[in-house]
Specification:
With 732 residues, the protein is an alpha+beta fold. The chain has four domains: 8-33 and 464-726, Glycosyltransferase, CATH 1.50.10; 35-40 and 358-462; 41-209, Jelly Rolls; 219-354, Jelly Rolls (Sandwich), CATH 2.60.120. It has 20 helices and 35 strands. The strands form eleven sheets. Strands 13, 16, 17, 19, 21, 22 and 25 form a seven-stranded antiparallel sheet that branches. It has a six-stranded antiparallel sheet with strand order 7-6-9-4-11-12, with no helix packed on it. A five-stranded antiparallel sheet has the order 2-3-10-5-8, with no helix packed on it. The radius of gyration is 29 Å and the shape is globular. The protein starts with 19 loop residues before the first helix and ends in a 6-residue tail after the last helix.
Length: 732
């Protein structure tokens, strides 16, 4: 029977690519090719522009900006949002007067009635975004009680919206351009509420803020300082060997460094160079050095927007800091008044950093799973390309962590590491944090330690809990998903820091979730439990009783992450043969190990009974009419194989588990992966419901990161299983 996702001859198996090394490589190569390493982007940001608050809401505070505006006046703001692919998204707005919002010329929101005086109450509305540029045009009208609005994506930590000023004159600066208020905006309205290709006409039709033409200023004007020192930094390219190319033009200059060394004259070679000038903060002119005619300065790193060649750092009290430290642009520095970063020669204008790749360099929980699978695949296959790709991706958010926290402090919402800076749920930290510790164990990064401590503090001390200590979400719910969002990190953190409390927490949470979510009649798990509604089983709240596949997968997979790392021997598994050799352990058996093994084996029995006729498990585990879901199937393969190889599966299930895992792997190759390495049948990220119809309607995504890495990891585990069986089934 052909796959429901593609014709059978399009499958990886049909193309003779079902063996784990081949299929893993096929998936990994497609993923890397589609998501190449892409560095963050620097863009100009003007403090006079539209600001963003800590919840990623763009604040169009026209009442404060234009105190002289009269009722009936209107102001427009326009910004471009770039998307890598078409997608449906939800936005929300809070109004201080009549507001209309257009996207690509289509009216997507028009305030009415009470909404126009809600101020802090947000109204949600859908937006169809397309691949490429999406032009947002916001019209706000002044009334007696307010003028402006706030706009945000409904889930900004998941869909960060980095707007770019439209019109060629702004040259790619960050933010929104906005007009002065006017009582007659009919012509502008006709342009901005029409097709987006009228950019030039709209630009000519109004005076736009902040101004795109600016005058460079000296340090005194930029910093409003008269004491201390600043550094000025620029780069230049010499097209030939050049002698005595720069000299001090102002007595404010203290030192000139070229390529990190003091320069007092002499030659520089042809090619690229950078130049640091240490000068008094009281310098009131940007022309503090004299250059030979064949030297043209440029910013020391590439910045999109209208920037100046010189950047300033300071002001500092003497002695000034180490120049090498200042030129590390991945982190801020301490200046007078606290943390600071480089500024342009335009007052209030600074470079800001944004991650604009869809999947590379980001910190999200699905990417934590994806890259964990690729890392293990690279190790198993001896493929350094996969390992290097993962390490490079992880290094991007880790190396820029301090800078991202500075951005959050300075600008409200950062342009990178959004979830890690948000840090409001287990989703934000645990999965990618676990991956980070995996990478750090292979190549230590001193900046990872601070992140790990912050995550551990959040999970252990700040995460919301029930009275018995079980993790709960803000909406008074318990979700099976949260076991993967916490347990793998806690285990790795405990082993890294020798902290028993973290390991105890991981064990305790799994057992608490068994208490609240386990359905004994089928030996599987309910997806979630509402703590706001009644008691049906003697415990707080009510489970929804729906075994959503990936919720079960997160718990089962997390058990397989924990059990090999909490001591004991392979013979601890119930009814395990006495001749089975003990697996190597890092410590003595944890007191909860036997109970956790019992939990694991209870789930094994339930899941084996529900494997679908073709070898995959279904979107709703006990509903064979729901679609075949590939990410859960891969999680089940991993957990079943680990139970056999690492010695915690019951003897009564071992043979059946081996058959089920092999059958499931073949089914993935036949029915879920095509010959180009594309993955099908991964359920999109889920909310929750007490209705089965909701879960039946949850569609699957193409090449979804919830599934790509775990399928690669399943292939790694199938390879481990084959080795274990060749060795007689006795080696962990």
């Amino acid at each position: 029977m052909p796959s429901k996702y593609f014709e059978s001859h399009e499958s990886a198996a049909y193309a003779n690519m079902a063996e784990p090394p081949t299929l893993i490589s096929l998936i990994a190569n497609r993923y890397i090719g589609a998501n190449p390493a892409e560095p963050p982007v620097w863009r100009v940001y003007d403090a006079r522009g539209i600001s963003t608050d800590a919840k990623a809401r763009s604040i169009f505070d026209f009442g404060e900006r234009f105190p002289g505006a009269r009722p009936g006046d209107a102001a427009w703001a326009v910004g471009d949002l770039w998307c890598r692919a078409d997608r449906e998204s939800n936005f929300q707005a809070a109004c201080k007067g009549p507001v209309r919002i257009y996207v690509n010329g289509a009216l997507v929101f028009a305030s009415a009635g009470a909404q126009e005086s809600s101020h802090d109450t947000f109204t949600r509305f859908p937006v169809s975004l397309r691949a490429g540029r999406n032009r947002f045009a916001i019209r706000c009208e002044c009334t007696r009680i307010g003028f402006g609005c706030a706009l945000a994506n409904a889930m900004p930590q998941w869909e960060p919206c980095h707007y770019i000023m439209p019109f060629a004159a702004y040259n790619g600066e960050s933010g929104f351009a906005y007009t002065n208020p006017t009582a007659d905006d009919a012509a502008l309205c006709a342009l901005l509420a029409a097709d987006e290709n009228v950019s030039d006409a709209a630009f000519e039709a109004a005076e736009w803020n902040p101004p795109h033409v600016r005058t460079p200023q000296g340090p005194r004007a930029v910093y409003d300082e008269s004491t201390g020192v600043v550094y000025a930094w620029a780069a230049f390219e010499a097209d030939r060997q050049t002698r005595d190319f720069v000299s001090a033009k102002s007595p404010a200059v203290r030192d000139i460094l070229v390529d990190g060394r003091p320069y007092t004259g002499g030659e520089v070679s042809a090619g690229d160079h950078d130049m640091l000038v240490c000068l008094d903060a009281s310098a009131d002119t940007p022309d503090f050095v004299a250059l030979s005619r064949d030297i043209a300065l440029k910013p020391p790193f590439y910045i999109k927007g209208n920037t100046s060649p010189w950047l300033y750092a300071g002001a500092f009290d003497a002695p000034p800091p180490d120049p090498e430290r200042l030129t590390d642009i991945s982190r801020p520095f301490e200046a007078r008044g606290g943390l600071s970063f480089w500024k342009t020669q335009f007052a209030g204008v600074s470079p800001r950093l944004f991650i604009e790749s869809e999947l590379y360099g980001r910190w999200t929980y699905p990417l934590g799973v994806t890259l964990y699978g690729m890392l293990r695949a690279g190790e198993r296959l001896g493929n350094s390309t996969y390992i290097d790709y993962v390490m490079s991706h992880v290094a991007t958010p880790v190396d820029h962590d301090a800078y991202a926290l500075y951005e959050k402090q300075a600008y409200g919402f950062p342009g990178l590491n959004e979830q890690l800076c948000w840090l409001d749920a287990l989703d934000d930290c645990g999965s990618f944090g676990s991956l980070m510790l995996e990478c750090d164990a292979r190549c230590p990064n001193p900046r990872a330690e601070a992140i790990a401590e912050r995550i551990a503090d959040y999970i252990l001390n700040k995460q919301e809990r029930m009275p018995d200590g079980a993790f709960q979400r803000h909406g008074s719910t318990i979700w099976a998903d949260d076991m993967y969002m916490s347990v793998p990190f806690l285990v790795r953190y405990a082993l890294r820091t020798n902290m028993p409390r973290a390991l105890d927490e991981a064990c305790a949470q799994l057992l608490l979730y068994r208490k609240y979510l386990f359905m004994p009649e089928k030996s599987i798990l309910s997806h979630m439990r509402s703590l706001r509604h009644g008691r049906t089983d003697g415990l707080d709240g009510t489970p929804n009783g729906i075994p959503w596949c990936r919720g079960n997968g997160w718990v089962f997979f997390s058990l397989s992450e924990l059990l090999p790392r909490i001591g004991g021997s392979a013979s601890d598994a119930k009814d395990a043969p006495e001749q089975r050799e003990a697996a190597p352990r890092a410590r003595e058996a944890h007191p909860a190990r036997a109970e956790l093994i019992d939990f694991y084996n209870s789930l094994v029995g339930g899941y084996l009974a529900l494997q679908g006729e073709h070898g995959l498990w279904h979107q709703i585990l006990d509903d064979p009419e729901s679609y075949e879901e590939s990410s859960t199937t891969a999680m089940f393969i991993c957990a079943l194989v680990r139970g056999c190889v690492d010695g915690f599966i019951s003897r009564e299930y071992e043979s059946a588990a081996i058959r089920a895992a092999r059958r499931a792997w073949r089914a993935i190759a036949e029915r879920a992966v095509d010959r180009k390495g594309n993955l099908y049948g991964v359920c999109r990220g889920s909310g929750f419901s007490f209705s089965r119809a909701y879960y039946r309607a949850l569609s699957w995504n193409f090449n979804d990161t919830h599934g790509i890495g775990i399928v690669m990891l399943a292939g790694v585990e199938i390879m481990r299983l084959a080795e274990w069986l060749r060795d007689g089934g006795a080696r962990a």
